Amino acid sequence: MKISRSLFRSTALVFIGALFAVRAASAQTGPMRMHHGFQDTRKWVGIFESPERAKWQKPDEVVKALALKPGENIADIGAGTGYFTRRFARAVAPGGIATGLDVEPGMVAYMKRDAEKLGLKNYRARVAKPDDPELAPDSVNLIFFCDALHHIAGRVAYLKRLHPALRRGGRIALVDFKPSSPIGPPKAMRIPPGEAIKEFREAGYRPIREFNFLPYQYFIEFVPSRAAAR
Ligand SMILES: C[S@@+](CC[C@H](N)C(=O)[O-])C[C@H]1O[C@@H](n2cnc3c(N)ncnc32)[C@H](O)[C@@H]1O
């Protein structure tokens, strides 16, 4: 079914407006601001799982671009409803595991029910600590953030904590809103890609690839800087 430009745009506005509402509300709450605002699971399911989101989020293209292989393990941090996690689970089967991590127990419960409903035994979910996802050493091939990293406080320290979890050849992929997007939160509230790259570099990673097919978000892959020597 063809979706009109205005419907496409209005859906995107609802999604991004909702994100902004969370950030604006949370901006008044100081250092804990990044960890509140997603308790109303039912509301967020309607927004994150909106069928129109796919028009600009292009989830299947994102998964394809990541060139995942069966047997790989994926950690989807700030996974929300598992919009990407369930797709990762399919992409890494057989043998691989996709885990959705989120600070909100309601989101984790939703993901667990979804995995059960879909019969995806390699789709896991668990609650994450706000400052540390507690990934086991040498456990993942890809760590993925979509519209989630900007919710995390102390990002450089957080990213540094992820190093031991990455397997040989492991990557981190980041999808977040572009400053140039005509819609979205005010520019001051976005993480421009240059700033994200700077933070990743400070945390010991380097960008290896950038994809330009998402209209409202940048999409960058990073590897540990030390990987150059491998
Ligand atoms: C905008 S949603 C994005 C959800 C999902 N990645 C998607 O693309 O549909 C951000 C999610 O990050 C979660 N979150 C916020 N801070 C977090 C943290 N420190 N660690 C893990 N998840 C976090 C929120 O609960 C929320 O579900």
**Count of spatially separate domains:** 1
Q: Average pLDDT across residues?
A: 86
Contiguous runs where pLDDT drops below 50 for at least 5 residues? 20-36
Q: Strand-and-helix sequence, N→C?
A: HHHHEHEHEEHEHEE
**DSSP summary: helix tally:** 8
Give the beta-strand count: 7
CATH architecture term: 3-Layer(aba) Sandwich
Distance between the termini: 48 Å
- Strand ordering within the main sheet: 3-2-1-4-5-7-6
Rounded to the nearest angstrom, the radius of gyration is 17 Å
- CATH evolutionary superfamily: Vaccinia Virus protein VP39
Q: What percentage of the residues does DSSP assign to strands (E)? A: 15-25%
Helix content: 25-40%
The CATH topology is given as Rossmann fold
Descriptive overview:
This protein has 230 residues and is an alpha/beta fold. The protein has one domain (5-229): Rossmann fold (3-Layer(aba) Sandwich), CATH 3.40.50.150. It contains eight helices and seven strands, in the order ααααβαβαββαβαββ. A seven-stranded mixed β-sheet has the order 3-2-1-4-5-7-6, with helices on both faces. Strand 2 (97-102), helix 6 and strand 3 (123-127) form a beta-alpha-beta unit. S-adenosylmethionine binds next to strand 2.
